[in-house]
Specification:
40% helix, Nucleotidyltransferase, domain 5, alpha/beta, globular, five-stranded mixed β-sheet
Length: 379
């Protein structure tokens, strides 16, 4: 992942303003690594100062994926990975600060999303690991974590949380806008000047099935640019069957994860079909594209669509999104916010909300009974 670095501007910048620095840490359902964003909130719009990406080793990534499904010795494996991830998050922060020659004392707080292992909103349960005690101890910085469970406690889904940040940054007075984050799971935020309530929800699989399928067939972590999918052909019968899954028919608020959309889910639909692997990949791209655009078109007749998340680099997927409607589709780079870093910036913002005793959720998005302050603070 490309690094965003303004080090050359640093000394001029520090003199001309009084920065309010936070660091956001994000590791999504794809479990490929840690995004760290250093953000200044001293002005009306967040200013991204620097970023650092720390990839997971293949062995750690496999351990995380294995832990996301029921299995033996789960508690012991959870304990091991919780500590490993806590240290990995801390090392990522320390490297980012070292690269920018900034002392920890200048950082107000770290907002750590953690690594999701389970998300069961029907059971009022979600779990993100990466011990924040270790992050706080090894960085010397106040750490805010465990953002999702407070929303669940008030009857919400605990996800998605980034629409509150999207509302702050991307709203327009005269235009409908849809912000689409394509991570392992895809989610949308629908912003309308005619509706005070923001709508946001998980649309279904983003990259998770694409990554899982190419790894099972070619041992590659992802399909670069969608090149393999482009070699295949859409299988309409399979696509039709996949889109009939009950999740796509659910009304929001709704959220999902790897617990639902995974290879076992896909294999149920492939069991009685003979389809080439490349055709499966092409069909999965179409599933992601159609489920996203169907979700938007259900609620907005017209909108400008802005993409963020790792899926923005899948050129074939972006082409298929554009083929679904006449909506204008661009990346969040249009706002000066690199698409790879929106979620990390959002969790820096959520940490700021928590320290300022301000709510971080949107009941219209998650279904919670009320706005509430999110997260636990680890001094």
């Amino acid at each position: 992942m490309a690094q965003y670095d303004r080090k050359k501007e640093w000394y001029f910048y520090i003199v001309k303003s009084h920065p309010e620095f936070y660091i956001g840490l994000m590791s999504g359902t794809s479990a490929d690594g840690i995004d760290a964003a250093l953000v200044d909130f001293s002005e009306s719009s967040p200013k991204l100062i620097a970023t650092y990406y720390s990839p997971y080793s293949s062995s750690l990534r496999e351990k995380i994926h294995a832990l996301c499904a029921p299995g033996e010795n789960e508690i012991e494996r959870l304990a091991e990975i919780d500590v490993l991830l806590g240290k990995a998050f801390a090392n990522t922060v320390n490297t980012l600060l070292k690269n920018q020659a900034i002392s920890p004392e200048k950082i107000h707080a770290i907002g750590s999303h953690g690594q999701t292992i389970r998300h069961y909103p029907k059971l009022t349960f979600t779990l993100q690991i990466g011990d924040p005690n270790i992050i706080a101890a090894e960085t010397g910085i106040v750490t805010v974590a465990d953002f999702r469970r407070k929303d669940l406690a008030f009857g919400g889904q605990g996800a998605p949380l980034v629409p509150a940040f999207h509302q702050q940054i991307f709203s327009a007075k005269e235009k409908n806008r849809a912000i689409v984050n394509i991570g392992g799971i895809a989610n949308v935020t629908l912003l309308s000047p005619h509706n005070e309530s923001v709508l946001g929800f998980d649309t279904g699989p983003g990259n998770t099935l694409l990554d899982a399928w190419i790894h099972s067939q070619q041992k590659k972590p992802y399909d670069e640019n969608g090149d393999w999918a482009r070699l295949g052909s859409l299988n309409q019968d399979l696509l039709h069957a996949l889109l009939l899954d009950p999740y796509f028919k659910l009304a929001p608020p709704k959220s999902t994860g790897r617990e639902y959309f995974n290879l076992d889910w896909l294999q149920k639909y492939l069991a009685n079909r003979t389809i080439s692997p490349a055709d499966v990949q092409a069909t999965l791209v179409e599933l992601t594209a159609q489920s996203i655009m169907n979700a938007i078109k259900t609620h907005l007749q017209a909108a400008d669509v802005f993409i963020c998340g790792g899926g923005v680099h899948n050129q074939f997927l972006i082409e298929r999104l554009r083929a679904q409607s006449a909506f204008t589709i661009k990346s969040t780079e249009e706002f000066g916010i690199p698409p790879d870093w929106v979620e990390a910036i959002a969790f820096a913002w959520l940490a700021k909300q928590t320290l300022n005793r301000q709510p971080g959720n949107l009941p219209s998005v998650t279904g919670a009974k009320k706005n509430t302050i999110l997260g636990g603070i680890y001094y």
